Amino acid sequence: MKTRILLVDDEEDFVQVLSERLKIRDYNVDTSFSGEDALAKVKNHDFDVVILDVAMPGMNGITALREIKAVKPLTEVIMLTGKATVDTAIEGMKLGAYDYVLKPCDTEKLSADINKAHQRKTEHEDRIREAKVRDILVSRGV
Amino acid sequence: MTIDLNAAFESGLQYFGKMTASISHEIKNVLAIINENAGLMEDLVLMANKGRPLEPERLTTLAGKIISQIQRADGIILNMNTFAHSVDEFQKRIDITETLTLVVSLSNRFASMRGVAVELAPIHNPIRINTNQFLLENIVWLCLDYAMDEAGHGKRVVLNAEKVDNAIAIRFAMPEGVTGDFSRIFPGKREEALVEILAGDLSTHRDRGEIVLTLPTEIKN
């Protein structure tokens, strides 16, 4: 199954072109131009990885990250920042972001990060599934 | 009254830092878009090498997007250059429309982040004053920053300037009223120091949603 990505940035041209490049690399890509819209999409759909710009009008990337992690804790988030400083991105990682990427980004590196983030999500899901099976077996005295 | 030069100095450095950080952020965004468009062209060429037909119109569109971003970057850099040169002379004759246009352009990203629209009302007759350009830009920014907070999300701040005898009045109007929190003290130490150096006056009129900055047309040394 293709990795499901939500790409979030208020720079519409950037989102359109990067999403096309990610689709060429065989990802299933949805897009949002604001934190509020991204959160609504995350609530209603299952994404493996959210690529989230830090500096957006309205709900900024850090607030959006916090909200996304609150509703879908297993969804991995890669922060995207145009700032040369990494302070905000590090704050994001403390809040549970998988990694951060500086703009302009190397698409191959971003692609590698997406794959690793998806892998981590899959491992988390597997561990949760195994724990559930173990609980069921224990409750049945197996 | 003694002028608080430290407050003015600190304000100037903060303003310069804030604007240059914002400009670099904007340029990074432009570079990111150029980077992705060039990357997509490369992807299309790679796919063409593997047999997928290459559509010339597609390349033309992508090249057009790159050109448009280069023009955007050119505008940003032009503003940055004008802003950087505003510290060249302590005092000079400046055109108010040009100065307000520059401050508004530099503030666009901050306005957009707050969801506030900033408009500059047409100034029909050129107004030129002799003052310190950088300090003027700084105080206009501080007034605009405060007005954007007071206006609140989804509202407008409209700037206009008029000549009144030997002075000019720059108005920051919030036509939809004020909705922001009033937690900030305004004018604070920085604003007071700048206004004093510029021999001007700053007044807030919350009842009619307006901040008025008055400056002499000729500042004395």
Which features does this protein show?
heterodimer; A: 142 residues; alpha/beta; Rossmann fold; five-stranded parallel sheet; 5 helices; globular; B: 221 residues; alpha+beta; Heat Shock Protein 90; 2 domains; two-stranded antiparallel ribbon; 18% strand; two-component regulatory system (chain A); coiled coil (chain A); CheY-like_superfamily (chain A); phosphoprotein (chain A); Sig_transdc_resp-reg_receiver (chain A)
Quick summary of this structure?
Chain A is of the alpha/beta class and about 140 residues long.
Describe this structure in words.
The complex is a heterodimer of chains A (142) and B (221). Chain A has 142 residues and is an alpha/beta fold. Chain A has a single domain (4-139), classed as Rossmann fold (3-Layer(aba) Sandwich). Helix content of chain A is 53%, strand content 18%. Chain A has a 5-stranded parallel beta sheet, with helices on both faces. In chain A, helix 4 (87-94) links the parallel strand 4 and strand 5. The mean pLDDT of chain A is 92. With 221 residues, chain B is of the alpha+beta class. Chain B folds into 2 domains: 5-85; 92-216, 2-Layer Sandwich (Heat Shock Protein 90). Chain B contains 5 helices and 7 strands. Chain B has a 5-stranded mixed beta sheet with strand order 2-4-5-7-6. In chain B, strands 1-3 form a two-stranded antiparallel ribbon. The model of chain B has no long low-confidence stretch (mean pLDDT 92).
**CATH fold field value of chain A:** Rossmann fold
> Tally of extended strands of chain A?
5
Distance between the termini of chain B: 16 Å
Radius of gyration of chain B: 21 Å
CATH class of the largest domain in chain B: Alpha Beta
Walk across the major sheet of chain A and give the strand order: 2-1-3-4-5
Domain module tally of chain A: 1
So what's the oligomer here?
heterodimer
Rg over CA atoms of chain A: 16 Å
**Greatest interface by residues involved:** A-B, 20 and 24 residues
- For the biggest β-sheet of chain B, the strand order reads 2-4-5-7-6
Major beta sheet summary of chain B = 5 strands, mixed
The residue ranges of chain B in which pLDDT falls below 50 over 5 or more consecutive positions are: none
Looking at the overall shape, the CATH architecture of the largest domain in chain B is 2-Layer Sandwich
Mean of pLDDT of chain B? 92
Q: CATH superfamily assignment of chain A? A: Response regulator
Supply the CATH architecture of chain A. 3-Layer(aba) Sandwich
User: How far is the first residue's CA from the last residue's CA of chain A?
Assistant: 33 Å
Provide the succession of SSEs of chain B.
Answer: HHEHEEHEEHEE
Tell me the number of helical segments of chain A per DSSP (H or I, 4 or more residues long). 5
Low-confidence stretches of chain A: none
Domain Response regulatory (chain A): 4-118
GO molecular function, one term (chain A): transcription cis-regulatory region binding
Pfam families (chain A): Response_reg
Protein name (chain A): Response regulator with CheY-like receiver, AAA-type ATPase, and DNA-binding domains
